[in-house]
Write a structure and sequence with these properties.
alpha+beta; 4 strands; binds adenosine-5'-triphosphate; Alpha-Beta Plaits; four-stranded antiparallel β-sheet
């Protein structure tokens, strides 16, 4: 059984019910082991996305992700990391609408920044992000 960190981003929070329904609609077989409603501080956002700190879009990304509440999710199940990434679709929602029209980013996102949801890109990243966002839990 694998764990991943998922996050519904501020732009998709107004459609939260529909986004969460994708877990069953896409038959992902992932269980919500924990969830938390958060308003990320700038410091938390910089920490979460620290791998992108040298990228030109970093400041804008931090502003976007702190612009409203987010839902942080601990998802578990076989191949959780890959299954959730697959359900999300490509980073850019505009690309997702042509290449993966049933994906979460196609349905609920806007563009390459405002893209509805996040998913860890590896097991190591999942553990890092889960321990950051659910510090009271031992995710190992
Ligand atoms: P995530 O990590 O959120 O699941 P990802 O792994 O598909 O997304 P990354 O390349 O890790 O994409 O980028 C992290 C986030 O930064 C993206 O989800 C998006 O919100 C934003 N982003 C990525 N590329 C760009 C870009 N070129 N311009 C603006 N924002 C971007």
């Amino acid at each position: 059984r694998q764990s991943t960190f998922a996050m519904i981003k501020p732009d998709a929070m107004s459609q939260l019910g529909s986004v969460l329904s994708e877990l069953t609609e896409q038959r992902l077989k992932l269980r919500i082991a924990g969830l938390r409603l958060l308003q990320l501080t700038t410091a938390q956002a910089r920490h979460l996305y620290n791998e992108h700190q040298e990228r030109p879009f970093f400041k804008s990304l931090v502003a976007y992700i702190t612009s409203g509440p987010v839902l942080a999710l601990h998802l578990t199940g076989p191949g959780a990391v890959g299954r959730w990434r697959e359900a999300l679709g490509p980073t850019d929602s505009a690309v997702a609408r042509t290449s993966a029209p049933n994906s979460i980013r196609a349905k609920f996102g806007t563009d390459k920044q405002i893209n509805a949801a996040h998913g860890s890109d590896s097991v190591a990243a999942a553990h890092r992000e889960l321990s950051l966002m659910f510090p009271e839990w031992d995710v190992s």
